[in-house]
Amino acid sequence: MSSYTRPVNRLLDYHPLVDVDELETLDFSDRFDIGPEHIPDLIRMATDKDLMGEEVSDLEFAAPYYAMLALKQFHATEAVEPLLSLFDLAQETDNEWISEDLPQFYAAFGPETIPVLVGYMSDISHHPFARTNAANALKEISELHPEVRTQCIEAIAHALETEPDSEDAPAARGFLISDLIDLEAKEAAPVIERAFAQQTVDESIAGDWDEVQVELGLKDRSELPEKPRFNPFASPPPLDLISSFRPGASGEKYLKGFSEPPKASKKKHKEKMAKASRKKNRKR
User: Fold this and answer.
1) Cα separation, 26 vs 46, whole angstroms
2) Are the C-beta atoms of residues 97 and 17 closer than 8 Å to each other?
3) What is the pTM of this model?
4) 224-273: per-residue pLDDT in tens?
């Protein structure tokens, strides 16, 4: 921490991440005397793993986030490649701001970041969830720049089709499909259908193939087969169904294969999956 000098070191004791609404208008030049000449130190702070551990104070924990915001404010294109490492750090730490805000950081720089993100996604040495966060950045870029929509959809669809099998792959494919749904990517339907046909998708994230077709406007909901609903007064369900109880958004419990619960927020689902993956990897 002591390696940071003024004025960048002022971010180490600025404000904990409690209410960040005010940050939308925070001027780092005016508030901290930080300017473009401090970009190298801001990149170092934004990617400083030592500031992301459980042992640091709340103020220090917030510093990489503020450094990233400053880089965004200065439109520091030289930060685009170094900050890719944050996608990996999101899988090693519990800093949820990384997965929440990093895609928006890349979207702010626009289509020029697409080749960097696609290159990162194609490198399977990165964790599946890290690569799906990069895909989410492509989705954000596409929504801000419709002229590159096709390019972004093709990259996400390619990632879905080439995702190698692993313990986390079904969830990763679910997140990629969810991004394609958000982009209303009907043209990616064949790739999505193949993924479901191979039974390699976590359906709790984006729904099953029928549900995806409805979301993409390829089917009307009235065309879907009606799912049987659990009758508590009927004979008890088989034990394998009882074991598949899962909590719904309202705290109630549902049976898999019967009435479906409201879908949880994709962002919250991804955070939960990423945390579970980190705990599992620490045990190894």
Assistant:
1) 17
2) yes
3) 0.79
4) 877 666 555 555 555 444 344 333 333 333 333 333 333 445 555 555 44
- Pull the structure tokens for residue 208: 């099953």
* Residue among 264, 239, 238, 241 at smallest CA distance from 251: 264
- Distance (Å, whole) CA 70 – CA 64: 10
Angle between helix axes 96-109 and 266-283 (nearest 10 degrees) is 120
Token pair 């991440």 is found at 17
Q: How far apart are CA 133 and CA 160, in angstroms?
A: 13
The answer on 69 and 52 residing in a single domain is: yes
Give, as one character, the DSSP assignment of residue 127: -
Mapped onto helix, strand or coil, the DSSP state of residue 120 is: helix
C-alpha–C-alpha distance, residues 180 and 202, integer Å: 15
101/198 same-domain check: yes
> Are 114 and 40 contained in the same domain?
no
For the chain, the distance separating the N- and C-terminal CA atoms, rounded to the nearest angstrom, is: 30
Tokens of 131: 């690569």
Angle between helices 189-197 and 169-182 (to 10 degrees): 150
Q: Within this chain, do residues 67 and 169 fall inside the same structural domain, yes or no?
A: no
Torsion of CA 115, 121, 125, 130, to 10 degrees: 120
Q: Are 161 and 122 in contact (CB under 8 A)?
A: no
